[in-house]
Amino acid sequence: MPSPSPRTGLLVHVIEDDEDIRAETVFALGELGFDAQGFGDAPSFYKAFAVQPCDIAVVDIGLPGENGLAIVSHLRAVQRRLGLVLVTARGELEDRLLGLREGADAYLVKPVNMLELAETLNAVGRRLTVAPQGNAATSPPAPAAWRLLEGDWILGDPEGRQMALTTSERAFLGCLFGQRGTAASRDDLIRALGGDVFDFDEHRIDAIASRLRRKAAKLGMRLPLHSVRGTGYVLAN
C-alpha cells in the first residue's frame, strides 16, 4: 500500500457484509485519501446516511436483507447528486447491465484492486464537485434546443426540464452533442466512455441509451435519441 495520500474531501460509505473485506476496504480508502466508513447491511447504512449523507456509496450486491441493487435503485431515485459504485463477485453480463440500469455510476467485479477503486471514486467525485458555469444561472437557455448544463452534468430540454447525468451518461451524451445531427459510431461512443474498441462490451452502450430514455420519460422529457442500424446513435434536433 502506498504512503497516505492527500485528502480528497469525499465521504465514502462502504456497504459490505464480509467483515474482513469491509475493514480492508475502509482502511485502504482511508490511506488513499478518502473519509471512509463501513456498514454491514442496509439498515445500518441508512441510519448513518440519514444523519450525514455520504458523497459516494460503494455497495456490494449480495447483502443480507435488502440487496445492493435495491439500495442503488432507492438512492438514485431520491438522491441524484450521489455517486454509486457497485462492487460484487457477480461478473456476468446480465448482472453488469442490470447494475448500470438501476443507476450505478460504475460496476467493479471482485477481487477489486484498491487503486482501481480509488480512481473510480475520484472520477465519480469529479462529477459531484464540478461547479456550475459562471453565467449558467443568468444566461437564458437556447430556445427550443436540448443542451448540456453545469459542466455537462445536467441535460436540459426545450421546455426547461432538467435531468442529472451519471458519469457514463455524461460521456455518452457528450459524444452525441459533439456530432449533433449526425450519427456517432459505436467506436466513437466506446472511446468517449474510455474503452478499447477491441475489448469492450457493446451491450453497455445500449444499456446506457435505454437508461437515458427511461429516465427522461419519467421526467416527461421526450429525448430525441435514436439508434442508427449498423452505425450507432444520433441525437436529433
Layout: helices, strands, pairs:
Layout lengths: L10 E5 L3 H13 L3 E5 L2 H10 L4 E4 L8 H11 L4 E6 L4 H9 L4 E4 L4 H16 L17 E3 L4 E3 L5 E3 L2 H12 L5 E2 H7 L10 H16 L6 E4 L3 E4 L2
Parallel strand pairs: 1-2, 1-3, 3-4, 4-5
Antiparallel strand pairs: 6-7, 7-8, 9-11, 10-11
GO molecular function: phosphorelay response regulator activity; transcription cis-regulatory region binding
GO cellular component, one term: protein-DNA complex
Pfam family, one: Response_reg
Keywords:
Arc Repressor Mutant, subunit A, 3-stranded antiparallel beta sheet, alpha/beta, 237 residues, Rossmann fold, 5-stranded parallel beta sheet, 11 strands, single chain, 8 helices
How would you describe what is shown here?
The protein has 2 domains: 11-129, 3-Layer(aba) Sandwich (Rossmann fold), CATH 3.40.50; 147-235, Arc Repressor Mutant, subunit A (Orthogonal Bundle). Helix content is 40%, strand content 18%. The protein is built from 8 helices and 11 strands. It has a 5-stranded parallel beta sheet with strand order 2-1-3-4-5, sandwiched between helices. Strands 6-7-8 form a 3-stranded antiparallel beta sheet, with helices on one face. Strands 9-11-10 form a 3-stranded antiparallel beta sheet. α4 (93-101) packs parallel to α8. The longest helix is centred in the middle third of the chain and has 16 residues, at 114-129. Mean pLDDT is 83; it is low at 131-144.
